[in-house]
Amino acid sequence: MIHGIGTDILNIQTIAPSVADRSDPFVRKTYTEKELELIDSRPLPLYCFATRFAGKEAVFKAFGVHGDAFRLKDIEILEDESGVPQVFLHGKAAALAEEMGLTRIMISLSYDTDYAAAFACICAE
């Protein structure tokens, strides 16, 4: 059963100044170490930063909670061996998902020259 869906679109240039400096508070509060490793492995890291940020926002919206329920860093978006994005929850997000009986998160990430977009669907059994 679908619990919620979320979508987000982001003008990529809005995060460009912040992600240019890995010590920026935005980067430290938003991305996990594993995400940063993945992003650094890409030829165009800015697009990977942007799609992951849009993805985190889409997952947050799919939860249907208020802004202080958990941090975006509690949502981790990596990839399987085929390059398909996979969502992992940590901290308060993982605890909330368990409490709500949420069992699966599906996500789609995309970008074009100026925009990154994401769509997430959270399911419960």
Automatic annotation (TrEMBL):
Gene Ontology molecular function terms on file: holo-[acyl-carrier-protein] synthase activity; magnesium ion binding
Keywords assigned: Cytoplasm, Fatty acid biosynthesis, Fatty acid metabolism, Lipid biosynthesis, Lipid metabolism, Magnesium, Metal-binding, Transferase
Annotated Mg(2+) binding sites: D8, E57
Pfam families: ACPS
Broad class of where this protein is predominantly found: cytoplasm
InterPro entries named among the record's database cross-references: 4-PPantetheinyl_Trfase_dom, 4-PPantetheinyl_Trfase_dom_sf, ACPS, Ppantetheine-prot_Trfase_dom
The enzyme's E.C. designation: 2.7.8.7
GO BP term, pick one: fatty acid biosynthetic process
Catalytic activity as recorded in UniProt: apo-[ACP] + CoA = holo-[ACP] + adenosine 3',5'-bisphosphate + H(+)
Transmembrane region(s): none
Superkingdom as given in the UniProt entry: Bacteria
Required co-factors: Mg(2+)
CC annotations in GO: cytoplasm
Top EC class of this enzyme: transferase
Residues of the 4'-phosphopantetheinyl transferase domain: 4-119
UniProt-annotated location(s): Cytoplasm
SUPFAM superfamilies recorded: 4'-phosphopantetheinyl transferase
Summary of the function given for this chain in its UniProt record: Transfers the 4'-phosphopantetheine moiety from coenzyme A to a Ser of acyl-carrier-protein.
Annotated family: Belongs to the P-Pant transferase superfamily. AcpS family.
Protein name: Holo-[acyl-carrier-protein] synthase
Provenance organism: Enterocloster lavalensis
Taxonomic lineage of the native organism: Bacteria, Bacillati, Bacillota, Clostridia, Lachnospirales
Gene (name only): acpS
